[in-house]
Automatic annotation (TrEMBL):
<feature type="transmembrane region" description="Helical">
    <location>
        <begin position="314"/>
        <end position="331"/>
    </location>
</feature>
<keyword id="KW-0812">Transmembrane</keyword>
<protein>
    <recommendedName>
        <fullName>4-amino-4-deoxy-L-arabinose transferase-like glycosyltransferase</fullName>
    </recommendedName>
</protein>
<feature type="transmembrane region" description="Helical">
    <location>
        <begin position="197"/>
        <end position="219"/>
    </location>
</feature>
<feature type="transmembrane region" description="Helical">
    <location>
        <begin position="479"/>
        <end position="497"/>
    </location>
</feature>
<feature type="transmembrane region" description="Helical">
    <location>
        <begin position="351"/>
        <end position="370"/>
    </location>
</feature>
<keyword id="KW-1133">Transmembrane helix</keyword>
<feature type="transmembrane region" description="Helical">
    <location>
        <begin position="34"/>
        <end position="57"/>
    </location>
</feature>
<feature type="transmembrane region" description="Helical">
    <location>
        <begin position="97"/>
        <end position="117"/>
    </location>
</feature>
<feature type="transmembrane region" description="Helical">
    <location>
        <begin position="447"/>
        <end position="467"/>
    </location>
</feature>
<feature type="transmembrane region" description="Helical">
    <location>
        <begin position="251"/>
        <end position="268"/>
    </location>
</feature>
<feature type="transmembrane region" description="Helical">
    <location>
        <begin position="64"/>
        <end position="85"/>
    </location>
</feature>
<feature type="transmembrane region" description="Helical">
    <location>
        <begin position="274"/>
        <end position="293"/>
    </location>
</feature>
<feature type="transmembrane region" description="Helical">
    <location>
        <begin position="382"/>
        <end position="399"/>
    </location>
</feature>
<feature type="transmembrane region" description="Helical">
    <location>
        <begin position="541"/>
        <end position="566"/>
    </location>
</feature>
<keyword id="KW-0472">Membrane</keyword>
<feature type="transmembrane region" description="Helical">
    <location>
        <begin position="509"/>
        <end position="529"/>
    </location>
</feature>
Amino acid sequence: MNTCETDDWRSRRGAAAAGTAGDEPDVSRAGLCLARLTLVPALVLVSWLAVALPLLMAGVFTPLPAIALFVPVAALVLTFGLRAVRPPAGHGGRWGSWWTVAGLLAVTVAFCALQLATYSQQIVVRRDPASYFNFATWLAGHGSLPIHALQQAFGGADPALSFGSPAFYQHGSVLWPQFMAGTPMILAPVGRLAGPYAMLAVMPVLGGLAVLSFGGLVARLIGPRWAPAGALALALTWPMMMISRSIYSETAALVLMCGGLALTLDAVRSDRRLPALLGGLALGLTILVRIDGLRDVLPVVAYAGLLVALRRRTGPALFAGLVAGVAAGLIEGYTMSRPYLHYVGGSLVPLLYIGVAVVVVSALATLVIRRRGLPDLTRFRLPDLVVPVTFAVMAFFAARPKFQIVRRVPDNPDDRANAAYIAALQKSLRLPLDPNRQYSELSLHWVTWYIGVPATLLATIGAGLLARKLLRRRRTEWALPYAVIAWTTVTTLWRPGITPDQPWGSRRLIVVVLPGLLLFALWLVAWAVRNVRRLGYGPQIAAATAVAGVALIMVPTVLTSAGLAFTPTEQGEVAQARSMCHRIGPRATVLIVERVTADRFTQLIRGMCGVPSGRIQARPGSSTAAAEDVSRIARKVAAAGRRPVLLGANSADVAPYGRASQVFHVFTRRDSSSLVSAPQGTWSLTINVWMADPVYAG
């Protein structure tokens, strides 16, 4: 057996056996506080999701039972999860200082405050944030799925009447939300207890916790002194600000990803099984938040197999937690988001096959390594070759627009709607008309738009050097984070799988790609500072090197974000929606007679106003419904003992049926949309709704 691979692992096992963290004199209280504080957000989310999902599956997801169960579960999870904390001794016998803790908390609080001051009220369904809001609003009011259309309130079914809208799929007389339930389950209790403003304000807080969690990962992998700088580098990126101002699934996924990786590192270092189980669970539950997490966690399977092969008791625990989290997400998706899974089936099914293959290969590799030991990866100069290979991969993505244009032919209604949207954008931006173009070949350029070319180059160098060290069995604490970052970055850059306008498309980068590249870049800067000190240049030169390196990372980021960071978007929608609900009044059945208004407001009215709402299909070649269909269905509503209320985008849409009045008016700003350059500034947005309240004798 080749025993050279055991040196680093044995030293870690010996350190773990030396005693608990509280028994180690070389671990400062500040370091212990830093390590534990940065695990708390992920552990709290794990506790909440573990309680909320069974209640939702049982149809009894209401705040009081959920909170009553959450408190003891969270106490147990935090107790056992924080036992994993084993900060390594730093230079001079200390790991972390109170200045580090204060700096990290200052970045977190400042980021959270800025996002709270500028958070979006995006509740009118145009894109995913409003869809998540309306999903969460329904859960807040009802605590169960599916969403019931209440056909009896419309006098029964009618061929011109339907109830679905974007992100809410109709199946018979019920509707199923498009997305995974993780984020709505986090928001729903707040909405039930404190209302829509508080629900929207959860996202800046969650974004601050994601920045804090990332700082903890930086501290573990690079050093505690770099944690505030790492947190600030992520906080300054516009994608991080964007997902913290509106309801995006990526925000909670980032907390779970960073916290899960940090918890796994601590569990492996301390050789504790239960924290390893919780680390795997946190990583697995990213699937409950966003289905793309299934791709991101595949390297965790291989890493768990490696731990098993090395006879580390944390390996089976990590794998069990991961399987439990992934299973929870897949079960929820299959039972409550199946139309969405069907829509993404073209990429999901191959990913499931890849997942099975990874499990099989990992199992075989585990058996081989357990019997023969780790292979000698230094043969054939592999550590030296990995550096040019890293550069070659990044050079390929940089040059990709020169030799490839990615297109996709629409084969379903959603894809056709996306193609029409891209065509409209191309026309407004004066670009060549090519509605099937996906712009995926520009994915690396997206990265440079948000963190800059210098940071991307530093990250490439850092990734190559780290891979070299890993192949030489050094810096083994990087094994899992490196695998996750490298795998997800390459696969995401190759196929982002998202509507490509920016900054919208940047959400695909924010969970792993941008944080991972920032980690690599900061590690290289820290490595350079250490080498400057080792060469005896003195503290002033080392400090100048650190400042220069951090400036190279942050200055381009600030230049991109500055034009967007202080401009609130999607303002006034909550107040207008409440006013509209008041104007609609009691015992109403809402009939939306114009297509765009139906897309935007059908579920908002159903969930926020608490009245049945449906849409009357538009005439061919028109955006409004036929008058005979409107009159017929309105009379059926009146015959059922309810008030028919008609809504449209303009007074002309509803004036033929009664006195028209404007019930919703918003003139605000929204994120701009760019296809071939970084986003700059915001665009204006106007939304109007007009209402008529006709009287029918029945």
